Amino acid sequence: MNKSNQPKVPTELGTEKIGKLLMQYAIPAIIAQTASSLYHMIDSIFIGHIPDVGAFAISGLATTFPFMNLSAAFGAMVGVGGATQLSVRLGQRDYDSAKTILGNLVTLNILVGIIFATVSLLFLDDILIFFGASEQTLPFARAFMEIILLGNAVTHLYLGINAALRSAGHPKQAMYATILTVCMNIILAPLFIYIFGWGIRGAALATILAQSITLIWQIKLLSNPDELLHLQRGIYKLRKNIVKGILTIGMSPFFINVAACIVVIIVNKGLRSYSDNGDMSIAAYGIANRVQFIFVMVVLGFTQGMQPIVGYNYGARLFIRVKETLKLTIIWGTIVTTVGFLISEFMPEIVARAFTTDEALIESSARALRIISLVMPVIGFQLVTTNFFQSIGKVNKSIFLSLTRQMLFLMPLLLILPLFWGEEGVWYSMPISDFIAAVLTVVLLVQQFKEWRKENIMN
Amino acid sequence: MKNYVISIGRELGSGGKEIAEKLAHKLGIPVYDKKLLEAAAQESGIDASAFEHADEKESTSFFGNILGYIGGSNDSYMASDRLFQIQSEAMRNIAGQCSCITVGRCSEYVLREHNCLISIFITADRNDRIQRIMQKDGLDEQAAIERMQKGDKQRRSYHDYYATTEWGAARTYDLCINSSRLGIDGTVDFIFEYIKRLW
Asked: What is the pTM of this model?
């Protein structure tokens, strides 16, 4: 038999100091999470500073968010499904099956990428108008999306291979790939937008070019025949059982992304119908959303670092350590979102100014940011606790909590509140939904601890 | 004679467990069914209840998948995929050390590289299975039928998720037997003869 070449369960998880462990596991995750959200933020910042047309360009960009969600939905369907299957096979050291999955993953990504792009390009204007674009903003949204869609297969392949690298035991390389793409984008975007004068098209082109270069590097990494898992001939032909397996697992991430897309559409539509200046409000939402997102991603980095520590110690029945890890991660999460809260409440203009030079847009973005961040400190707690339930195998509770904040409460609020308070109703739906979700999270957490106390564990 | 492993897959109510135990007794080697979970627990330091919770159940619920996605990735040691991997590692360690019989848990796939592996699948007539489940679990006929159907579904889904082969299909195993034909003891003797001819 093969010698064991998979790492054993690291027992340090049960003995090392929690604070040290959390940092060790969380920091790489935080870097990876923020890098990808920085990417979108940088695009926004550069586009916002295109002379004369900044505000309309930003609004146009904001109407492409649901499009990006939708594209990400298809990407996640193939990527998550493939990566999960891949890691099961690698865990069993079944390299032949793993290679075929990798090959099928590549083919599926290209296929889905091309089909999605073709259909979208055919109906591009209709879709963008449905997503909230106006006559003024449509040209920018269209110019941006045309390039993004032409490179769609590259984007899917780049993300898919990164997921594969991660499950193939190369999380560092996957992280470098993400960072490399962000750095190239920072260099290429201003070059294309301002120096070459390609405007919003330049931003899209920089994105696709950065991803293409990284993709070449990724393919080179995975073509090394010394690696147990590498690209080779004969693995690309689609196999029915593999495709079926990928799509079955990928179905749920697909729906989650579609739901996220629907939420953005509802927000954009709400702002368009209730605001005096729909384009301006949609642009403001685009900016405020991106700012809040950065802090959320940092918290998600912490929760990702928490997962193995909580999971192991819960499994090993070291409940005192479980509790300590939860407490520490909640503290860190709350610190992060509280910093976000303070920035959003007390200096939103300074933040907004980074994204645009348009005074009216700065003002409305600052207002939007102030409102949607009203209860931001509790979001840290909410995210950490939701993930905590996941780490201890309480799947349904975790799903439920994570759906409440982003959908179950938010969607009805978004539809009802504007009927009474107009545009304000759209903005206030977000903090209200966050707040209710946090209260519910407290209830479920207290309940869980009561249950444990009854079983005489965790005092 | 060198180390050998007999992997027994079985339908719920087919008498597979009893056959495994009797065969083990006859051969003088240990059986690892639920005992495997304890071994995995001991090796990893994770409590056996966690393994039991994920044991031979469908691993791909719709919600379970959503979850894996929301958190970015499910790195928890409570995740079924992770537990299965730890359990497989324990199974390979045991099979590397001594001759034994393994029951279920995709053992014929997990141990596929073992150089002395015999894989067997045990089935039985529908009525015999229902009768056995009624007796063993003290159920009425309707409840036994339901348990049988649920058991088949779970084991198939568990097996086909973690292994690349098809649960209960002849090409997955060296030998497939219907225990209703020869009875429990007859089946044990038959497998015993089969093994003797091989080694």
From this structure: 0.82
